[in-house]
Write a structure and sequence with these properties.
There is one protein chain. With 237 residues, the protein is of the alpha/beta class. Helix 1 packs antiparallel against helix 2, helix 2 packs across helix 3 and helix 5 crosses helix 6. The C terminus is likely disordered.
């Protein structure tokens, strides 16, 4: 019951606060990053979100590559990362009025992942954001996973961007964010989740993207075993 009430409160926060923030971002486009960060930070503090952060953040990385389990992934990174982030998302997310303008006002990049013609659009938009000092953020799985043991297959968009622009990459692994917040199921347990920054790198060799997924999966499996499986076993005990 508490989880449902907390989830309903989060929805109320979004419905009441996000339209105001969208209006501010359209009215004061130069300050959209500060507006977004403040909105996310208030959410984190208001709902007393608990996270364990591991590793060191590299502000020089030009693209953040991460797995995706929950909207909490976006909220927490928006609240805590100092760079001006630019999220690359599915075009369908821009269709709902409220969420669509929350992405369009700060000039996030919306693409049709199923169309090969979108590659030119992706490269053009990404070049513009990079030239304006923004840090690209991408979920190579392409959608949210169910928070299980294995990642979904990685799509090639991140690989194309990194190789085309010669970007420095920082991988991030989230574990437990879906247990913390699952808006689809209207569940907000607010359990502690983990966000781990892996060492940043500039790719070399042809197999770097395959190796990246393997490294991220390995790190995630360790976290999953410790923080998810371990917690369930302790509850049973």
């Amino acid at each position: 019951m508490v989880s449902k009430i907390r989830a309903f409160s989060a929805v109320v926060y979004v419905v009441l606060v996000i339209p105001f923030c969208i209006a501010l971002m359209y009215g004061f486009p130069k300050f959209h990053r500060k507006i977004r960060r403040a909105t996310a930070w208030i959410f984190i503090k208001l709902f007393r979100v608990k996270a364990q952060v591991i590793g060191e953040r590299d502000r020089e990385a030009r693209i953040l590559v991460m797995n995706h389990q929950s909207f909490m992934d976006v909220i927490y990174l928006e609240a805590t990362h100092p760079n001006n982030l630019c999220w690359i998302a599915k075009k369908e997310l821009g269709k709902p009025f409220l969420y669509g303008h929350a992405l369009k006002a700060p000039k996030m990049i919306l693409i049709n992942r199923e169309s090969k013609k979108e590659l030119v659009h992706l490269l053009k938009e990404s070049e513009d954001r990079l030239q304006n000092g923004r840090t690209l953020c991408i979920f190579p799985e392409g959608t949210r996973s169910l928070g299980g043991e294995k990642f979904l297959p990685f799509k090639s968009g991140a690989k194309v961007l990194v190789e085309h622009f010669g970007l420095k990459v920082q991988p991030i692994v989230f574990c437990g964010t879906r247990r913390c917040l699952d808006m689809g199921a209207m569940r907000f347990s607010n359990e502690t989740f983990v966000m781990k920054y892996l060492p940043s790198f500039t790719p070399q060799g042809e197999d770097w993207f395959v190796e990246l997924k393997e490294t991220m999966q390995e790190e995630y499996s360790k976290l999953y075993s410790e923080f998810v499986v371990g917690d369930l076993q302790s509850l049973k005990g």
